[in-house]
Amino acid sequence: MRIALTLLRASVEGLQDKDLLMTDCRGEPLDEVLQRDTEWTVAAQQVAAKLGKAYSAVGDLAYKEAPDEQEPATRG
Fold it and tell me: What is the pLDDT of residues 25-35, one digit of tens each?
């Protein structure tokens, strides 16, 4: 997810550098739209990092605690 967000941000910045990016249909100034996009992108990257850590932790625990006669939950 972080890679996708990084690529999206680079694409938006590339469009802006080429003056191909316009304001949205609500008429908001482009700088405000880009600032909001930047803030949301950073927040999404932070959430993605936390989810990745949580998934790793839960996956390890589920694998270690799986009964011998069952398939580990992380392989499901």
Answer: 777 777 787 78
